[in-house]
Amino acid sequence: MSTTTQPVGAPPSPAPPSAAPARASSQGGRRRRGGPGGRALGLGVVGLWLSLMVLLPLAALTVRSFDDGLSGFWAAVTAPAALAALEVTLGVSVVVALVNAVMGTLVAWVLVRDEFPGQRVVNALIDLPFALPTIVASIVLLSLYGPNSPIGVHLNATRWGLGVALAFVTLPFVVRSVQPVLIELDREVEEAAASLGASNTTIFRRVVLPSLAPAVISGTGLAFARAVGEYGSVVLIGGNIPRETQVVSQYIQQQIEIDSPAAAAAVSVALLSVSFLTLFVLRVWATLSQRREASTA
Amino acid sequence: MITVTDARKTYGDFVALDDVSLEIPAGSLTALLGPSGSGKSTLLRSIAGLEDLDGGNVRIDGEDVTHQPPQHRGIGFVFQHYAAFKHMTVRDNVAFGLTIRRRPKAEVARKVDDLLEIVGLDGFQHRYPAQLSGGQRQRMALARALAVDPQVLLLDEPFGALDAKVRADLRRWLRRLHDEVHVTTVLVTHDQEEALDVADRIAVLNKGRIEQVGDPVSLYERPENDFVMSFLGAVSRLGDRLVRPHDIVLERDHATAASRQAAEGAVGPLVAARVDRVVRLGFEVRIELTADDGERFVAQVTRAEAERRRYTAGEDVVAWALRSEEPVGAGPVA
Ligand SMILES: Nc1ncnc2c1ncn2[C@@H]1O[C@H](COP(=O)(O)OP(=O)(O)O)[C@@H](O)[C@H]1O
User: Considering its fold, how many domains does chain B have in total?
Assistant: First the structure.
């Protein structure tokens, strides 16, 4: 059949298949590339900027954390209070991130697919946790759930309190990463599934969710990383009770206050490693699940 | 058989379907043909249950499905932009309708293999849609729709996103497929050539109404009004009538024209005109003329005819039409 002789490397849908898509796109790529001089300059600026902003401070921190040698580093990280703080932080952050994955996706869904009065306002409100100084969030939460709670809910100095504070500041991440993907989602794909007999839940599970997965994963990763490093919003409502609600950031501050900066640095490095590893793994996962759709090999 | 009765669909003040009634015989390949915005897709999507009608009803094989969701209508639907499940392989795409029905694995595998062979995609089982050309994606979409043994197959501009060569190949292939499978098929297109080429019945739509329904030949040769006439092929205005350019005969003088017209038993005006230009298009020759009254029109003759007569620009001729006895419109159009 003559139509099977079509070139196989078609561009990702819904771009129309041109006669020679591969050639067209490689030409486009060539045109976009700058000269060798421009490229080197760009790389240099970016390299310098990233070094100043990220790599140097990280290096300084890492060096500082080994001030007392390897054994000192190990002792600082495995101190019972430090381990407890790490455990509280990571535990609550994982739960908050997972809750975000579900609720954030749901919020994004409702904002994109449903129509209700005040939709624009709600949409704008989602970003509030980004705009608000986190200490303000802490005050708000404390006055709502603290000892004088007007609604009779007392979360002060509990892990629930921590969770609520972290969920508040991390709310936008999943919503904002899923929303654009949902808007771009081809409704005809869902209609096709419906015409083939799929129920709404089947359509969501088998067709919609796989397309959203990369966005959900990366949003959840960002929410997790933010929760792990959060300080301001948990300062007041968390209670800072060692081994109960003290999070790593508070433990680090405590170490600084008792003048043990090497221990502070050591725990920071440990926290950093966990966050980085998590983000890295999630990124690889998201990329893998995305690559299948876009692959042209 | 699909029976649509008084289907009505409005978007605000806009009437997309204006009490449309249409009967689509079992086993036919019917084209819904009309200009963009005429309501073809709306009608097709209403048959599928992807749009809710504001009035009227739809029956498929006698069963009233007006209030059934698409899941329960026994349809297969193919979209212009393929609507492929991008995260699934070709095999999983085609198998989708069967796996969600929890059919036995062996049966699914057999059926998918058969379908992939029919649509010429065997060997592509493990590819993802992004690794297929547009034509291949659309054939995958067809296999996916056929996998659930639909009572009716609905195609919404299925070749609209493909380039001309692939489009022509694919529609002939669809025609052959239909001759084998015989599933009642409805195809939406705005391309009259496509409709004439592939369909055994055509319904011409215009502004949410059906203008005429019939087989391709009768629609082309006996259009019931000016709209159908113009939409189904090129037309020239000769005097007060619309005629097909290839029905126009050019003579050197009035007397010859009148006697030949009488000999052919044709009626209609004899129009004096001047040849503006002679364009050779492969085996056909297009002659552009200006009539005495200033009306420009086009005649189409075969190459042999053109060589015999040797038309040249600037020459005065008298034009008449072989076929203009059919009533075209309600009298002369200003
Ligand atoms: N969801 C919608 N909202 C408003 N108008 C619509 C909608 N869908 C279709 N229409 C209008 O209905 C008319 C018919 O559309 P359609 O059936 O897609 O036409 P066709 O398929 O013949 O091009 C068009 O003018 C279009 O603008």
Answer: 2
Please tell me which of the candidates A13, A17, A198 has its beta carbon nearest to residue B84. Answer: A13
Domain identity same for B176 and B300? no
Distance from CA of B156 to the nearest CA of A (A): 11
pLDDT digits (tens, 9 = 90+) for B35-53: 999 999 999 999 999 999 9
Taking the CA of residue A132 and the nearest CA in chain B, the distance in Å comes to: 39
Chains A and B form CB pairs within 8 A to the count of: 132
* pTM for the full predicted model: 0.80
The continuous run of DSSP H or E covering B257 comes out as helix B254-264
Cα separation, B157 vs B77, in Å, equals: 11
Residue B26 and residue B109 in one domain: yes
Of B82, B128, B173, the CB nearest to A292: B128
- The pLDDT tens digits for B98-107 are 999 999 999 9
Give the model's pLDDT for residue B148: 93
Which is nearest to B315 in space by CA: B277, B269, B260? B277
- Given B172, B197, B231, the domain boundary residue is B231
Q: What average pLDDT does range B110-120 have in this prediction?
A: 93
User: How far is it, in rounded angstroms, from Cα B191 to Cα B167?
Assistant: 11
Ligand 1 site, CB within 6 A: B 11, 14, 16, 34, 36-42
Q: Do B166 and A6 touch (CB under 8 A)?
A: yes
Could you give the number of structural domains in chain A? 2
| Partners of residue A191 in chain B, C-beta under 8 Å | 50, 70, 77, 79, 83
Domain that holds residue B245: 236-321
Q: How far does the centroid of ligand 1 lie from the alpha carbon of residue A165, in Å?
A: 48
**Out of B71, B134, B139, whose CB is closest to A194?**
B71
Segment A196-229, tens digit of pLDDT = 999 999 999 999 999 999 999 999 999 999 999 8
Nearest CA in chain A to B122: A4
The interface predicted TM-score of the complex, written ipTM, equals 0.85
* A214: chain B residues, CB-CB within 8 Å: none
The 10s digit of each residue's pLDDT in B240-264 is 888 888 889 998 889 999 999 899 8
Q: What's the CA-to-centroid distance between B36 and ligand 1, angstroms?
A: 9
Contact (CB<8Å) B70/A14: no
